[in-house]
Amino acid sequence: MSSGRAEGLAALAEEVHRCRLCPRLVEWREDQAANPPRRYRGQAYWARPVSGFGDPDARLGIVGLAPAAHGANRTGRMFTGDRSGDWLYASLHRTGFANQPTSEWRGDGLELRDAYITATVRCAPPANKPTPQERDTCLPYLRRELELLERCQVLVALGSFGWDGFLRAARALGEAPRPRPKFGHGAEAEVGRWRLLGCYHPSQQNTFTGKLTVPMTDAIFERARSLLV
Asked: What DSSP element (H or E) covers 199?
């Protein structure tokens, strides 16, 4: 492992955790922590921006939308403590990118193998809908992560928001493919040094309706593995 990459990502994480640049998101994330659903009452919420998580030497990057109000906003780790995370980490485990299929809380023993998970926006937004200004305010964190993840070759975007966020961050790094690649499940595009893959977001809206199935999810990460060199 490169100690420089690990140290850089750790320093960036501390900066993310202190961020209070978007007043609406600060108010929302803290209000959700102060007024949790009954099933989470008594738990200490993270209630801060959530940094990326995973292997600093990862060749696979995964970009989502934002923390869930009672998922990562509660647990402090990306895609942890909600059903979207259950779906995602189970697939990563089956395809060899995670040491266990569950992700319940920081410190539960989960380790990512050759993978790093992050998001376009770092605070839980009302109705899971950040504003364009909030997205743009947060994008420099994703850009800096991409710079630090020097070994990353393949990027899986979870949903159209993650796809758009990655393309915007890549453009800030000087990579702007023309025509602009369109999102779709299984879509692929060359963006500078990355191969970009599209995957429907593992939200309950998609998984409960069958829009996203277990084989569909696994196929994306199996494809990602086949592209790693």
From this structure: strand 194-199
Torsion of the alpha carbons at 121, 147, 54 and 193, rounded to the nearest 10: 100
pTM here? 0.96
Spell out the domains of the chain, with CATH numbers in brackets. 3-227 (3.40.470.10)
CA–CA gap between residue 136 and residue 22 (Å, rounded): 11
Query: What mean pLDDT is predicted for residues 122-150?
Result: 97
- Sign for the CA dihedral angle at 196, 198, 203, 207 comes to negative
The tens digit of pLDDT for each residue in 120-130 reads 999 999 999 99
Contacting residues for 52 by C-beta, under 8 A, at least 6 apart: 9, 13, 78, 116, 117, 118, 119, 145
Output the CA–CA distances (angstroms, integers) from residue 149 to 4, 8, 162, 163, 187, in the order listed.
11, 10, 17, 18, 23
CA 88/CA 101 separation, integer angstroms: 9
